[in-house]
Request: fold
Amino acid sequence: MTQVERRDQKPEPKEEPQEKKTKVTRRDFLVGAGSLVVGGVIGGVVGVQVAPQAPPVEEAAPEAPAEEEAVSPYKAGYTLVFDPYQCTGCMLCAVACAEKYSKELFPEETKNMVNLEFARIRPMRFQYVDVVNVCTYCQLEEWAEGSSNFPCAEVCPEDAILTIPEGEGKEGYYGMGYKWIDRDKCLGADKCWRCAEICEDQFASGISFDPIEKKAQVCSRCGGDPECVKVCPEPMALQWVPASRNGRFFANQPTAYAELLYRKMYNKRREL
Amino acid sequence: MADFYGMTGKIARVDLTSGNIDVIEPGEEIYRKYLGGSALGAYFLMKEGIADPGIQPLAPENLWQVMIGPVTGAAPNPRSVVVTKSPYNFFCATTCGGNAPAELKYAGWDGIQVVGKASKPVYLAVNNENIEIRDASHVWGMGVEEAEMVLKKEVLAELESREGMIRDADLTPEWAEMRPPKRLGMGQKRLAHVWLIGPSGENQVWYAATMTEGARAHGRWGSGAVAGSKNLKGIVVRGTKGHMLADKETFLQLTANIQASMRNNYFWRSYGTAGIGARSAYVEDAFPIRNWQWCCWADPTVKAITGPFMDQTSFVRKSACSGCVLHCLYPIETTSEDELMDGTLSDMPDWEAMGMVGGMLGYMEMKGTTPSDPFTGNHNDQAENLAKLQFTTFLHDNYGLDFIEGGANLGLLMELRQRNLISADDLDGIDLQWGDVHAVDALLKKIVQREGVGDRLAQGTYETAKYFAELKGNPEIINYAMTAHRYGQPAHDVRSPADKNALEYVTVNRSCAHTGGGGSGFKQGDYAAAISGQNGTCATNSLSICTFASGDWGGFTLDILKAATGWNDFTEEDRNNVGAREYALSRLFDVHTQQLTDPKEQYDKQVPPRWFNDPLPTGPHKGAVAYEGNTAKLFNEDLPAYWAARGWTEDKGIPTEKTLKDLGIDDVALDIARQHL
Reply:
């Protein structure tokens, strides 16, 4: 597994920042290299393919926050990876995530409440193994499945699961092709749960619903600087690394993942 | 907004006989007096008359409660406490970590009380305010590990259990053709947490535990047997309502401070309690070896009970309770030449297990040698010895047994066998020699199933000794039961001046608990300090959080309680009084339910004679006996002085009317106290 510095310290850029021309947005790419559409929804994955000389660490976009704020150079192509040997299942990631998004979405209702249901990342405790559940950014394969979309986005009847291209989106976020739920469009779990169902049916368990409006929730990687990684107290347990491949290869349903971990860690076959 | 912060203000009360489920709302005054956890449980035992000697511990009338406290939930280090009348007929308040305590708060409850008896095996499915009594016949008889994973998947939050709505048309045609949806709907999440009993609880083995997460236990005093007597296999909790906090910002800041402190707590973060094995043997001379005949090996190369050796041999990873950074539980896989033990998946073992089902059973010495002899084996022999210990730990966990009382019971039998006071025939043909893990395995099966002699042994160490004393017409046999107040002594001795003081075990309100606190006060004869330590432990068990982290909580404890509840006028004295109340109530409970007319003679003096009669044979404190052998000083001077410092009578240790009134607990305790004053 690739290892990087802990994320509670601001990493030093390893190379001089490059000119903005090295940055290729998803839109640019899709327009400019249509025949090469293989698996590249996440802008930076594609960016690396198109411009191999692009540095692994890029300069913050001009519209990024001021310098004194903690600025992450990490962007597209990075993903969350947890190490089942290092993770203790302590739930600090889930609390940090839940606090960030409950404060953002429902500041009044959650003024006096800590509620893990707002968390997009959620460790699940099986005996002797913990599985950290978070969206892995699965992509369908165009040549086989007729789309290169996220499966959850593909089945959403309202197109409420957005991919925010690099350089766009929420202030303080880095684009980097993160997922975002358009809460105005989302019908809410009382009417529709297709995204969560297809995820649990065929991929993992990356979608949850907030407990107040019951709208879908999915990990947006905090736009490039994930809160969960910053609070994780165990070295290397939860990393934000340039995985640069289709997230579906990381995806497992929680019970399936736990069964694999029983094999890997304890040489046991268990049915859950 | 919520009426309550910190607490939810609600306790569920389930009557398994009638199937009725009620909600108890004790009100703020009660919470301020008792906080939650063990003290609140003690209050309900007294209030509901469970101290009545007519209520048999394993009868439907007994009250079984799992309680949590005001900070349990979003705070680190949550514990749950099972409070009931023990099968041994005394007060039981036994604590456990894991994720279930926080989940119960998120479901909106401060506790669950169970009375009555179901007509068939059941479990409780707690899904926020909805509590269902569900059939448990499919998991009845199953080991703890297997049953827990079955129950865990049966309780999903409402949003996690929707029917299938995806149709082929929702997919691209290529995708739908290749891999159509299963239309099973949602249901993959596993976020419920489980408390449950094993086969030993079902069969009402007196020292059955209430388990969670495979290896975590409300270990002591037989809470699992009481659940089993009610046909209650377990409780599965899923909560989505969050934890309401009066001052969330301060609460989270204090939480972060505690977590930062834990992050630097190298002791716990390296081996958990396994880190103290060698110290206890070779420095303190207080480790249980062969039913406490030794407390230290003559050859300090015996090291299978040390954290580093266990880590080098078998630790796979580490596991934390919610919000905790100490991760003191280390899952292991054993490797052994013996098929019985090879591949065992369990935990470390922790401190008490390594003593009580390790050293205690003679697992650590080479065959044919004693702890007084040099250790003749190599590292692989040590690893094989460790495997025996880990396998025996696994058996107790998976059967759902207290391995402290269990180890005391097996150790007693092995010593009786060593001294030829019993034979293999007395144990249905099992020749229980020191170090024989196969014999232990065979005997445990009998105990758990209550087959043959196992039915006798299932009543614990003291009753086992009594049984053989009568069978053999030899009253001396009782003296080999290493129990105080009829319950197995945990892996800390009182003979070495470097470990516990005998008065600590004599006075602790939960029979022979090693976690009562007040140790340094007892050693110095400063009973005010000792009492303050004991009260502090009760407050910790009422909050209810983990004592392992209490150093990291340090000065934050009161502040975090205030931030959670908004009780800004709550003082250190209020916190101390929570413990004083629990001590007074549990003392009256013990005296009343056993109808003790002379508590000192009938109960308090029931400690192992070995403490005073058998000097330590080896080690740095060779020759030491408890209390310098002066039992008269212990029971006739110091115990009364301690009782007086508590505001209890000096002859019987009964809380006086004034003490009860000062503590504000005369409403539930005065009538009973008057019968014994």
In short: Residues 13 and 367 of chain B are 53 Å apart (CA to CA). Chain B touches chain A through 69 residues (CB under 8 Å). Chain B has a mean pLDDT of 96.
